[in-house]
Amino acid sequence: MIELENVTKIYEMGNQQVAALGGVSLSIDEGEILAIMGRSGSGKSTMMNVIGCLDVPTSGRYVLDGEDVGRLSDDRLAVVRNRKIGFVFQTYNLLARSTALANVELPLLYGNGKDHRRRAMEALDRVGLADRARHRPAELSGGEQQRVGIARALVKQPTILLADEPTGNLDSRSSEEIMGILQALNRDEGITVIIVTHEPEIAEHTARVVSMRDGQVIDDVAVDNPRQAVIQGLER
Amino acid sequence: MNAITILRTALSSLGSNKLRAGLTLLGIVIGVAAVISLMAIGRGVQQTITERIQSLGTNLLFVRPGETSTRGVGGGQGSAASLTIDDAYALQDSPFAPSVSAVAPELSTSAQLVAGRKNTSTTVVGVTPEYQFVRNFPVEFGQFIGPNHVETNAMVAVLGSAVAEDLYGFRSPIGQNVRINGRQFEVIGVLEEKGGSSFFSFDDRVMIPITTAYYRLSSQRTTQGSISVQTINVQIEDVSVINAAMGEVATVLRLRHRISGDDDFSITNQQETIEALQEATNSFVFFLGAIAGISLLVGGIGIMNIMLVSVTERTREIGIRKAMGAKRRDIMLQFVSEATLLSLGGGGVGVLLGWMLTLLLNGRSVIGSTPSQTSFNADIAVLALAVSAGIGLFFGIYPAMRAARLHPIDALRYE
Question: Using a CB-CB distance cutoff of 8 angstroms, which residues of chain A are in contact with residue B325?
Answer without folding.
Answer: 78-79, 81-83, 107, 110-111, 156
